[in-house]
Amino acid sequence: MKIIKYIIIIAALAMVFFTVYIATGKSNYEINVSKNTELSNQRLFRYVDNLQNFGDWNPWNNNNTFKLDSIYKGKDAKVTWDGNEAYITKSIPNDTVFLKINVSGNDYDTKVFFNENNGKTTIHWNVKGNLSFSEKFKLFFQGTPDKVIAPLFLEGLTNIDKNITESLKNFSIKNEGMTLIPEMFYIKQTIESDIENLGDKIFQSMEHMNNFAKNFELEPYGSPFTVFENINMLSGNVRYSVCMPIKNFFSTAEGSDIVCEKMPAFHGYKTILTGDYIHSDKAWTEVKKEILTKNLTQRADIKPIAIYKTSILTTQKTNEWVTEFIIPVNETVVPIVDTLITDTLSVSR
Fold first, then answer.
1. Which end of the chain, N or C, is surrounded by fewer C-beta atoms within 10 Å?
2. Cα angle for residues 131, 133, 135 (degrees, 5° grid)
3. pLDDT of 326-340, one tens digit each?
4. In the chain, what percentage of residues exceed pLDDT 70?
5. What residues form DSSP beta bridges with 123?
6. What's the CA angle centered on 171, arms 304 and 50, to 5 degrees?
7. How many CA atoms lie within 13 A of 165 on its CB side?
8. Are residues 207 and 108 part of one domain?
9. What is the rounded distance in angstroms from the CA atom of residue 46 to the CA atom of residue 97?
10. What is the C-alpha separation between 239 and 202, in angstroms, rounded?
11. CA–CA separation, 276 vs 195, rounded Å?
12. Count of the separate structural domains present in the chain
């Protein structure tokens, strides 16, 4: 009996020493995970910096219980779910998002940043935290934070890459036919970009003009649009004027990058793209093909336009973007082409 008693005491002491050893072990840690992608740093930053997307890519809980704060993009943006939360303490445009996360009582001080080189980007996620007792106990048997905790954050990076890539593939193009565009005043800013970064450039210009309109108390009067200036098929570079309709004419200062102009009313042929702006070249090709097929003649005095009915300004989900591509034509209706009718009736004599 004494031997059994001694064994129990020794086992109890060993458990105490083991518990103390685990509890007094190093708590703080830092890990880094990364993933290579074909996506641009602008596109990646815009996706991560908006916590509307957090429920789709976070590696902890992908369900519909995520609740956004009144600020959901950029500094001070916050999202909560099931007693957990994530919030952005700072963001550097197209570079870094500083994200604090609390999940199941565990605090993570993190930053997601992007390095772009030769058209390819590496997403990095740096994570600093303190191990709870249960995590220390788990790591004692399973390994280091790099082996046990890092795979969770790598899953998040994989989700980001997968979600954006899949959304880029999901698009449709539909021909709508003839439409009438009314006369309008508008302010515009001219930009130049490659097809890949076109959406980012347009978004930045739209935000700039939104701020310009607020500063000068201009009243927007319809959906923003772009005037198609030129596209270089070899380089993939596109030149656009990003425009915002306003109610009345406004005189801008000389040398301003934003000017006000008037567009006359016109008829045009319309094709609709549902999906990311990266497919703009396909939509333009389609509407041009339809004009030739339907024997329409393009007007030389008015340039083609693209109207952003549902855009990056209202939703981050690119598969929900709706853009109307319109080429002005001289006709007001699609002409009816006469076809030769052959009489197939035969008479027997």
1. C
2. 55
3. 999 999 998 876 554
4. 81
5. 35, 114
6. 95
7. 10
8. no
9. 10
10. 11
11. 11
12. 2
Give the closest residue to 124 by CA, choosing from 88, 89, 150, 90: 150
Pull the structure tokens for residue 233. 């098929």
The answer to whether residues 55 and 79 touch, using CB atoms and an 8 Å cutoff, is yes
| Beta strands 84-92; 172-181: pairing state | unpaired
Q: What is the pLDDT of residues 56-88, one digit of tens each?
A: 999 987 666 899 988 998 999 999 998 899 999
pTM: 0.74
| Measured CA distances, 339 to 290, 292, 343, 346 (Å) | 19, 17, 13, 21
Q: Which of 140, 169, 198 is the last residue of a domain?
A: 169
Can you tell me the distance from the alpha carbon of 152 to that of 110, in angstroms, rounded to the nearest whole number? 13
The dihedral over CA atoms of 82, 161, 306, 93, expressed in degrees to the nearest 10, equals 80
Q: Would the pLDDT of 134 be above 70? A: no
The reply to whether 107 and 143 lie within a common domain is yes
What's the domain range around 302?
A: 172-328
What sign for the dihedral angle of Cα 199, 205, 210, 211?
Answer: positive
299 DSSP 8-state letter: -
| 268 occurs within a structural domain | yes
Q: How far apart are the first and last CA of the chain?
A: 128
Kindly state whether residues 146 and 191 are assigned to the same domain.
no
Task: Check: CB of residue 21 under 8 Å from CB of residue 13.
Answer: no
